[in-house]
């Protein structure tokens, strides 16, 4: 039986979708393992050493839909890349495995979104985290904190997202973006003409549209995860990142300067 490379698996079984589990050849993975880092930022994705994200005896709150076993050749490939990327197969993946078309569509759009380059990556990352903090999605907050570290963003700012209104680390533009993300996430949305006009002047039309779409996608993922009981899986903690700051004041509440 001829062994085929992970790149061939990727091409044949992931239908062209770039996911965190379909991003490296075996050669790249072996080079990453030799470097011995917690996670190595490469042009194609995130790679972690094969260490568990939970300490012995620790367990996550059960999801509302029990995770399904990843079966078949496709499942074997996904598990292989998940373990190489995260050290274990995320429980959230097992939950979504009940409906593969939904899983593939979500990952596919998420990967396309990551290729957009009209808006600053930091602004988009902080906006997504602001939505996660507001909605209460610990999975997205933890994962995006982990990704901010991997992508070389300011982790001190990322750590402060839950209390951004009372934190002094953000620039005026970043604060406007975070305000916009929270306003978009209210029911009904509380976005004002003045806020959009201000961001339009500073970012331009293309970047503002991109930012808005990222925030909309963040609402989809955070609210879906929260409804399904998908919680943090310890991505940031596994890399030794400091805990997120405790939540501060929210939209409509009195804040201190």
TrEMBL record:
Domain Carboxymuconolactone decarboxylase-like: 103-183
Superkingdom, taxonomy of origin: Bacteria
SUPFAM superfamilies (alphabetical): AhpD-like
Annotated organism of origin: Corallococcus aberystwythensis
UniProt-recorded name of the protein: Carboxymuconolactone decarboxylase family protein
GO MF entries: peroxiredoxin activity
């Amino acid at each position: 039986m001829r062994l085929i490379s992970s790149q061939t698996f990727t091409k044949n079984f992931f239908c062209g979708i770039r996911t965190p589990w379909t991003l490296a050849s075996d050669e790249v993975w072996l080079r990453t393992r030799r470097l011995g880092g917690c996670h190595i930022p490469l042009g194609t994705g995130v790679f972690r050493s094969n260490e568990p994200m939970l300490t012995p005896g620790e367990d996550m709150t059960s999801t509302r839909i029990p995770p399904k076993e990843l079966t078949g050749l496709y499942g074997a490939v996904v598990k292989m890349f998940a373990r190489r990327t995260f050290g274990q197969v995320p429980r959230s993946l097992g939950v979504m495995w009940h409906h593969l078309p939904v899983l593939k569509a979500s990952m596919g759009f998420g990967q396309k979104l990551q290729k957009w380059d009209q808006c600053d990556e930091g602004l988009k990352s902080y906006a997504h985290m602001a939505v996660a903090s507001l909605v209460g999605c610990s999975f997205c907050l933890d994962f995006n904190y982990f990704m901010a570290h991997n992508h070389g963003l300011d982790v001190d700012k990322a750590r402060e997202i839950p209390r951004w209104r009372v934190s002094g680390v953000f620039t005026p533009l970043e604060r406007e973006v975070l305000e916009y993300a929270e306003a978009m996430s209210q029911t009904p949305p509380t976005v004002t003409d003045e806020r959009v006009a201000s961001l339009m002047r500073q970012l331009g039309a293309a970047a503002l549209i991109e930012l808005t779409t990222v925030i909309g996608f963040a609402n989809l993922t955070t609210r879906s995860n929260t409804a399904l009981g998908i919680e943090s899986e310890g991505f940031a903690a596994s890399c030794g990142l400091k805990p997120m700051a405790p939540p501060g004041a929210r939209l409509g509440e009195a804040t201190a300067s």
